[in-house]
Amino acid sequence: MTVIDTLVLDIEGTVCPITFVKETLFPYFLEKLPEYLSKVHFPLNEDAKNDPINSILLQLPEETSQTEESVKSYFSDLVAKDIKDPVLKSLQGFIWKSGYESGELKAPVYPDSIDFIKQFPKANSANKIYIYSSGSIKAQILLFGFVDENGTSVDLNKYLSGYFDITTAGYKTESTSYEKILKEISKSENPSSVLFLSDNVKEVEAAKAAGMESYIVVRPGNAPLTESDEKNHRIITSLSQLDI
Ligand SMILES: CSCCC(=O)C(=O)COP(=O)(O)O
Ligand SMILES: [Mg+2]
Fold first, then answer.
1. Which of 54, 76, 102 is the last residue of a domain?
2. Which amino acid residue places its CA nearest to atom 4 of ligand 1?
């Protein structure tokens, strides 16, 4: 049996509760959005590329980016439907930054995940951990940079070897995205030495189709699994159950 030395971790529903994303991060973004949009001049200025919000909004379809109101209602709709849209994810990462830096936001990464992330990449071993989330890479680095460990903010980024999102790897339910990750981390020849963990069955199936090992992580509040999901996949409820 191949030894697993590389982990690729999903975030929401895997190493941190879905409620943190849905009930804290998404509402924080919607609450702050009007304040950020009020500083933008509409119609958008094609030449104001060094204004970060203006440049993000320039990636929107033209009919959506005409007025402050149309932009607000476009993003609110995407958030309500939890659409993994790259422009939304980029703007969310930008707005969450000020929340983490002011101390208003702290990421409730599960204690078992904090322990695992700290101990798995031992010195002088090939062990590595990567992150693959629909949240932008900027948002991933922020989340792991401000982890709430017993009330203290800790930075776990030094234990992580890299990050992938939908702009760099592709959508998480497509096997080609996992093939791309394998190539990027030089594991195409040995995909079964890589373990992907996620709460999302379709993501687990896509990773397996690319040749990775993959388990479903069940956490409180995650979507329920069917009998066939339970039969076809290995399931864990904590990263402390990993026998690697
Ligand atoms: C990186 S924090 C924000 C998470 C987010 O926006 C999201 O859509 C979570 O998706 P995941 O792929 O981590 O389940
Ligand atoms: Mg998830």
1. 102
2. 135
